[in-house]
Amino acid sequence: MRKPIAAANWKMNGNFALVEAFAKHAWPQGNVEKIFGLPAIYLTKAHEMGLAELAGEDVSAHVSGAHTGEISATMLKEAGASYAIIGHSERRTDHGETETLLIEKWKQLKAQGLKVIYCIGESLQEYEAGQCDSALLRQLNPVLDAGLVDADTVIAYEPVWAIGTGRTATPEQAQEMHARIRAFVASKYGQEVADNCSILYGGSCKASNAPELFAKPDIDGGLIGGASLKAADFKAII
Questions:
Q1: What backbone torsions phi and psi does residue 190 show, to the nearest 5 degrees?
Q2: What digits encode the pLDDT tens for the residues 59-81?
Q3: Would you name the residues annotated as active-site residues?
């Protein structure tokens, strides 16, 4: 049975004081995996203070070398991360990241035993044009064909039109898309892998809409942005 996941994604926010406050916070225990996706500069401190599980917000496609500013999978692991987020819509948009590049990043993470949170989702234009399935398959098929998805994979469905806009997919819309993603995985890898693969909702999820979203059978938790920057808000989601 899939374990519910609450994954924080601080993006380019936070400071050492916030890391310390989160590390000292009394988080709920029980059957929810808590993942803290932090800027790389904060991972070591968070790890030393006992905040786990940790995720890098990106990773290099290279092992090492003359790649100024890049952070390797080895470095993330040494800093205490056990996950990394790749393919976030902001990385795709701001840095032009493609599936070809993301496959190489995924391979680096896999080689170091780090788990992947792979983000996919449709833009507003694709959503309004009824092209949701084609958008998701464009981002999902290459990694499926590359043989990278397994039972430990976490897929984050982020309808780009709902991120930071105040708009949120209804629980029914989100469930429909999550079910389609699981079916896409099953069509390539079989039902057992699909049933064990966690799929998170990543579109403006907060404490007020989390209960309805997480009650749906194919929504296994959330990749939380803004609401993960306040301990009380993230705790309420957990």
A1: 95, 160
A2: 999 999 999 999 999 999 999 99
A3: 88, 158
